[in-house]
Design goal:
about 210 residues, alpha/beta, eight-stranded mixed beta sheet, three-stranded mixed beta sheet, 11 strands, about 25% helix, globular
Length: about 210
């Protein structure tokens, strides 16, 4: 298995990143190294393939983008850690359900390190603390390769979630790491979550990079 590349990208515009994901997936071959892209987005709503317009209640000045991932509508903004998993699932002999489990359990373990008891739900992808959702998942698989990924609320303005039915559920409570750990930071959470994702995927060779450098 070729080495895994983990990119720490800071804040990136959504549309350009989505286009980069699609291009990466379309152009890769059996020798392309898998990558994790860790980043934040400016304020944006994204509506997945199962999304319905009526779940976007009052977007106001926040743009709405229709995307090709699974799932419903969600919000991205500064202070939310997004990790896109650009993985060759066929090469890894990994199915989508297994990948979802790896992601959810990595989030659970990362939060447990901070003393936050979280868990996934069998009826709705994502990770919850009590009845409140702290992380969302949305994936797409094309040519046996995954893209899109997870969004973990860390230290952000939560108000925009009130303008939608998150993940298609009216009144779904949302929470973030800062609600439980006042010193929560994107930098710290990114390191913890990447470590747990790498562990869950059974990786032995990892290359960490800043930005888009080759």
């Amino acid at each position: 298995m070729p080495e895994l590349i983990v990119r720490s990208l800071g804040q990136q515009p959504y549309l350009e990143t989505w286009e980069a994901m699609k291009s990466f997936t379309a152009e890769r071959d059996d020798h392309t190294k898998d990558e994790l892209w860790c980043l934040e987005h400016p304020k944006v709503y994204t509506q997945g393939q199962a999304g319905k317009a009526e779940h976007i209640l009052a977007p106001g000045d926040i743009p709405v983008i229709l995307v090709d991932r699974g799932g419903q509508v969600t919000y991205h903004g500064p202070g939310q850690l997004v990790v896109y998993l650009m993985l060759g699932l066929t090469r890894r002999k990994m199915g989508v359900r297994e990948l979802v489990d790896v992601i959810e359990q990595a989030i659970v373990r990362s939060l447990a390190e901070l003393g936050i008891a979280a868990e996934p739900r069998s009826d709705a992808p994502g990770v919850y603390v009590g009845d409140a959702k702290i992380a969302s998942l949305g994936l797409r698989v094309r040519r046996g390769c995954s893209f899109h990924g997870l969004a973990l609320n860390v230290d952000m303005d939560m108000e925009p979630f009130q303008r939608i039915n998150p993940c298609g559920y009216a009144g779904l409570a949302m929470c973030q790491v800062r609600d439980f750990v006042s010193t929560a930071s994107i930098v710290d959470i990114e390191k913890r979550l990447v470590t747990q994702l790498v562990s869950g995927m059974g990786e032995s060779t990892v290359s960490y990079r800043k930005g888009w450098e080759s």
